[in-house]
Amino acid sequence: MRIVFMGTPEFAVPVLDALVAAGHDVVAAYSQPPRRAGRGKSLTPSPVQARAEALGIAVRTPLSFRKEPEAIEAFVALEADVAVVAAYGLILPQAVLDAPRLGCLNVHGSLLPRWRGAAPIQRAILAGDTETGVGIMQMEAGLDTGPVRLEGRTPILGKTAGELSAELSAMGARLMVAVLDDVDAHPAVAQPEAGVTYAPKVDKAEARLDFSRSAVEVERQVRAFNPAPGAFFEFQGERVRVHSALVRHPGESRDDGVVLDDALTIACDEGAIRPLLVQRAGRGVMTAEELLRGFPIPVGTQL
Do the Cβ atoms of 116 and 91 come closer than 8 Å? Predict the structure, then answer.
């Protein structure tokens, strides 16, 4: 099949690889433009752009289809059979959605209609969902409102957003290849009208651990924001990132945010949280015990 691929982050890379491995002709890859990153703030291509270039696929990086009509014309001129979209990050106007013979198929990381929007994986973890999945959705103008051709499911358990993203990306890649192998065998089924929820983009401020919540909710914050933007608390003006944590003393209520013992157990509105792996700015990941040896946080401290 003659395919245009559209994606930006690491989540999308396995999908691109699967299309190439399946023998499809990926005639172009679209990705968001390179961003400034790192200490030198040099322009860095997205993971999809880097992978596409390594595969010898032509890459296009328009800032906006709506503001660049010539980008729409160039897309239409590709005469693709289908566009495969995975976490691209730009709105596709109707002219783009209609251009490929089979339209645009999106790999979406949730069980639609739950968690339509930009951050379905993080929102599912934060909400305490027990299950999530990925769907191959036929795109239309609305926000993730299109019918679904194929869906896969997985339990969330204690997975971080990074772990879940990798799992759903691999699953989505397999499902997309299956749909493209026989589109007619996977008809588009309209989403249920009930159960619609939205997954807004994660704000970095949400990553500050909120000890006025229950320990269960705080532990979800840790997993939802791992690896990015990284859950954290502050002590003496320094940010301490928490990579993993355990819920302790379930059901007990104490003063929110107080350090309870020399293992860095922190009281929450209900129960307590014990960070396991942490990281100071400019340092590597370490255990809480290692942190406290060089950066003491006394029992009774209010965080």
Answer: no
User: How many independent structural domains does the chain possess?
Assistant: 2
List the structure tokens of 272: 């307590």
**What is the residue type of 281?**
A
Q: What is the pLDDT of residue 22?
A: 98
Which is nearest to 235 in space by CA: 267, 261, 257? Answer: 257
Domain final position from 135, 169, 199 = 199
Give tens-digit pLDDT for 166-225. Answer: 999 999 999 999 999 999 999 999 999 999 999 999 999 999 999 999 999 999 999 999
In a domain, 150, yes or no: yes
Q: How far is the C-alpha of 23 from the C-alpha of 198, rounded, in Å?
A: 35
**Tokens linked to 191:** 């989403």
Q: Are residues 98 and 247 in the same domain?
A: no
Assess whether 150 and 250 both reside in one domain: no
Contact status, residue 224 vs residue 125, Cβ threshold 8 Å? yes
Q: Which of 2, 58, 8, 56 shows the shortest CA–CA distance to 29?
A: 58
Report phi then psi at 225, rounded to 5. Answer: -105, 20
Q: Are residues 176 and 74 in the same domain?
A: yes
* Phi, psi at 222, each rounded to 5°: -60, -45
118-152 tens-digit pLDDT = 999 999 999 999 999 999 999 999 999 999 999 99
Q: Is residue 303 in some structural domain? A: no
Which residues are CB-neighbours of 230 under 8 A, at least 6 positions away?
Answer: 207, 241, 243, 279
296 sits in the region (left: phi over 0; alpha: psi -120 to 50; else beta) called: beta
| Residue-number span of the structural domain to which 55 is assigned | 2-199
Pairing of strands 131-138, 148-155: antiparallel
Among 182, 199, 216, residue at a domain's last position: 199
Per-residue pLDDT of 238-261, as tens digits, reads 999 999 999 998 778 778 999 999
Q: For residue 112, is it within any domain? A: yes
What CATH number corresponds to the domain at position 232? 3.10.25.10
- Token code pair at residue 122: 């993080």
pLDDT value of position 231: 98
